[in-house]
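call fold(seq) -> tokens
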Amino acid sequence: MSEVQKRKKKRKMSKKKRKRLRQLAVMMTFVTAAVLVLSLIIVINCISDKEDIRDKGIAEYNKGNYEQAISLFNDSLAEHQWFSRNMDLDTKLYMANSYMELKQYDKARDLYKELRDETSFYLDKDYLDTMIPLASALYSFTTEKNYSKALPELEEAVAAGHDQLNMYIGVCYAELGNSDKMLECFNKYTDKYGMNTFIAYEISAYYLSINDLTSAESYIEKGMGCEDDEYKYLLKYNRAVLMEINKDYQSAFDIVSQLRTDYPDNEDIEKEYDFLYTRVNIDKEPVNGYEHEPEKTEE
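ret:
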């Protein structure tokens, strides 16, 4: 091979080499750009305000601001972020608990069921298995007021560990006319959790209904000695009824008059006030020298 041919061959090889290098450079540029774009996508999808919003929701939850917490939890769930599934599941659990606190038991029940259907090992399925019947029972009891339906659901919830619901079971039995089971369930509750004004009111009302005034008075006293005040006004109402039965109309009227001022929209108090008013305002003055009596009508 001549020198000229060698030089041509060398130039040709050099040209091919430069071409390959240019192609390699272009390819590396594309690869680098793709890596950068992919990295940017990953960063965008891994970093968001989701966790910060969720933390604000938890803070509101801990302060008892459940409606605000739910709003923030929804905002957090709406934020798209990769690798956040377990965090979102926990956020939904906070939401379900918030609905329970707001007594929106149907929403809580549905959310607990949704979480129960998840396959994540992150969730405590035993906890969900206790909360689903609890939310369902409380919905039937408080919203539907279907005591026949609520009763087995409440008993299921008690079997799952929520024995404080014996109080609600007692109410179901009261509404269904089974006084013995009512008292049994109320006693189960008070044996563990102590007396409260609600149970004292319910039991005293029962004893008034069967004219056991001694037992009624006993439970009224127990209720008035409780730390909670929620149903003390009804205990006062029962005391007025007891006094009425004992024909102490003036004392009963004094109690009901104050209750009427404090609770002007209560129909039972209003009816009792109207009746007692007639008892303490009987016209005892004689008419024409004689006690006034209603005229007899001819049959």
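The CA atoms of residues 4 and 10 lie 10 Å apart.
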